[in-house]
Amino acid sequence: MSRFKTTLNPAWFQGRHKREPYFEGWYFKLIDASTQHRYAFIPGIFLSQDPHAFIQVLDGAAGTATYHRFPLETFWAAEDRFEIHIGGNRFGSDGIILNIASPEQTIRGEIRLGDLASWPVTLASPGIMGWYAWVPTMECYHGVVSLDHRLYGSLEIDGQTVVFENGRGYIEKDWGQSFPQAWVWLQSNHFEQPGTCLTASTAVIPWRKSAFLGYIVGLWHEGRLYRFATYTGAKTEQLAITDEKVNWVLSSDRHRLHILANRGADSQYGLLKGPSTVEMGKRVAETLSATVWVSLTDLAGMTLFEGNGRFAGLEVYHTELLLKF
Questions:
Q1: What are residue 66's DSSP bridge partners?
Q2: How far apart (Å, rounded) are the C-alpha atoms in residues 316 and 187?
Q3: Integer Cα distance of 147 and 115 in angstroms
Q4: Backbone angles phi, psi at 231, to 5 degrees
Q5: Distance between CA 279 and CA 165 in Å, rounded?
Q6: What confidence tens digit (pLDDT) does each residue in 255-311 have?
Q7: Which residues contact 167 (CB under 8 A, 6 or more apart)?
Q8: Which helix (H) or strand (E) holds 229?
Q9: Does the bond joining 21 to the residue before it have cis omega, within 30 degrees of 0?
């Protein structure tokens, strides 16, 4: 019953009674109204060798990442809602309160969140994972907590006050035993038309004694979610990946989606830590300065949406393995 409830609420903490190796982390992306300040705050826990809680801070404008480590016993999670505490820091569906003080970085303040645009959850498809969310042996699970929402409040970061009033935010999460061997992930909710969001990822997925290339893509536009995923029967018509660009075309039984993401030669990126089964040892380069062009058409070629997303998050990790599938 506990797993049934948490699966239907992917934002909640999923790791109660889990045995190692296990990790769980939430990803809060915050961009102020001026777009000059771009941050990602990533709280989580890691259970394997050297178990601990953590908060990672990615400064997308500066291209730096800071890893704040906390004793495991400072981690607390509610059983019936999305709310976690790590030391004096709190994260939930209504906002975040930060109280980080270390030699590397100090951050204090509170950010409140407007109405969250959640990925729909049904019994047959509880979130972005679709029916795969019910499979108990997946290496890594993924959830989208909010595709888009307003930000209110401010943070004092290393002595500088950063005002996020009327900025925009995005929240997702991952949990399981380990990050995949290879993946591409990108996201933007800074299109010309407010309220539009693209989140897209593809990865090598272990399956029994083999593996397959899985993908989960969602375009949220004018209150409608267009899904392209392995479990929906969508097909990848084209996928070309370099360290700088991702050119991806997908089709469903009704629509075609073309994504062209460009990190850009001048983009700043920080090195985040990612989990394996034994350590937080993966070094993941992420930028919050990529651009992404998106075109959605019906199968007759009529354009339903076309736009450019700015300040996109982009990760490209060991993609030579992806292209073998």
A1: 57
A2: 12
A3: 10
A4: -75, -15
A5: 37
A6: 999 999 998 766 788 999 999 999 998 899 999 999 999 999 999 999 999 999 999
A7: 30, 31, 32, 33, 150, 151
A8: strand 224-229
A9: yes
